[in-house]
Automatic annotation (TrEMBL):
Database matches in Pfam families: FlgD_ig (PF13860)
Domain FlgD/Vpr Ig-like residues, every copy: 286-348
Secretion signal, residue range per the UniProt entry: 1-17
Alphabetical UniProt keywords: Signal
InterPro entries per record: FlgD/Vpr_Ig-like (IPR025965), Secre_tail (IPR026444)
Record NCBIfam families: Por_Secre_tail
Keyword Protein biosynthesis: no
Protein name: T9SS type A sorting domain-containing protein
Length: 361
């Protein structure tokens, strides 16, 4: 009997441990920058696999045809819009190329507690405008564990010249699997979340009902304990089979580096260049992005049109990579500067690049 019990205990000890993701795990991603590659061609032959425990997924050789985008997980207090979302303790900053060759950016703000993660709102910046959405929404309970399920509902209304659309989005979510996933960026222990989505749109013109449309879909998110979301896919519209074989979009983590905020960290190594600040014109703050093709002694300074030094934003040796620096419209003494045009100059080694930006009030 003793021999049998010993064998039983040994067999139990070899079982893989299930995964639990807590609020501390989510907040622990602050300081990371993730480079994602996305395929939005509309038809990708891929399957999420069956639900269950101790699953093994390998999407390392899946061909991704599409764009790359970067997500930096940051402390909301280090962003220009922190005062607009006082309840937020977790945020990410996403930037991606636009059709004009510049960068569009989005700040997404969350509240992460021991029992839940909720959306606080977002800011979207383009080359010409800044849009704010302060809609609050409960996204998921915490901690995340295998078998956990929840439902979320959101509603929205748009009015374009009397043509009104009422939208109701509902999602039933369940952590339907756990295991390991292999990507080009590495192998991760993950929980997999399946979302069954329903969108109902109702159309009115001058108060007259013109019809409605209901669309369903299924999407999956693979969430790592230490790196947040690392892989996702979405089915074709009206899909009902959980283990579908064709996706409309796929997003995969390509690499992880240090968040490049306030002149620190590195991501997206490439050619040495200074991007146009965004937004521009701006009020009250703006972001300056630049790339270093190699390690260099760097200075980033702001001057007025008379050549007077206003502020030094970065100074010292930096590693190669992609950098983001924010200017809050203040001088070296902490005083707000006046409206007008300013020059920002990047000096890296013996190379110097300058560009103009405009502060409006």
């Amino acid at each position: 009997m003793r021999f049998f019990v010993t064998l039983l205990l040994l067999s139990v000890s070899w079982l893989p441990a299930q995964i639990t993701i807590t609020n501390s795990d989510v907040l622990g991603t602050i300081g990371q920058t993730h480079l994602f590659e996305s395929d939005t061609t509309g038809s990708i032959t891929i399957s999420p696999g069956e639900a269950g425990e101790n699953k093994i997924w390998d999407f390392s050789s899946t061909v991704i045809n599409g764009e790359e985008n970067w997500i930096a997980f940051i402390d909301p207090q280090n962003t220009a819009y922190a005062d607009s979302f006082p309840g937020s303790n977790f945020s990410f900053f996403e930037w991606f190329p636009n059709e004009q060759g510049g960068l569009d950016t989005a700040y997404i703000y969350y509240s992460v507690t021991a029992s839940s993660i909720g959306l606080q709102g977002m800011i979207f910046e383009t080359d010409t405008a800044v849009y704010a959405d302060r809609s609050r929404e409960s996204l998921a309970p915490l901690p995340l564990t295998y078998g956990l399920s929840w439902k979320s509902v959101s509603k929205d209304t748009t009015d374009i010249d009397g043509f009104i659309t009422y939208q109701s989005d509902s999602s039933y979510s369940v952590v339907d699997a756990w295991g390991t996933i292999t990507l080009p960026s590495g192998t991760f222990e993950c929980l997999r979340i399946r979302n069954n989505n329903t969108n109902i749109s109702s159309f009115y013109f001058d108060g007259i009902f013109y019809g409605s449309d209901t669309t369903t879909s299924i999407d999956y998110d693979w969430v790592s304990k230490n790196n947040f979301r690392v892989f996702s896919m979405e089915s074709q519209p009206y899909e009902t089979e959980a283990n579908f074989t064709e996706a409309s979009s796929v997003e995969r983590l390509k690499s992880i580096s240090t968040t490049a905020i306030a002149g620190e960290g590195a991501a997206r190594p490439g050619a040495f260049e200074l991007d146009q600040n965004y937004p521009n014109p701006f009020n009250p703050s703006t972001t300056i992005a630049y790339r270093l093709e190699r390690n260099a002694n760097v200075s980033l300074k702001i001057y007025d049109l008379s050549g007077r030094l206003i502020r030094t934003l970065a100074q010292g040796m930096q590693q190669a990579g992609y950098k983001l620096v924010q200017w809050d419209g203040r001088d070296m003494n902490g005083q707000n500067v006046s409206s007008g045009a300013y020059i920002y100059q990047l000096q890296a080694g013996d190379v110097s690049i300058s560009k103009r930006m405009i502060l409006v009030k």
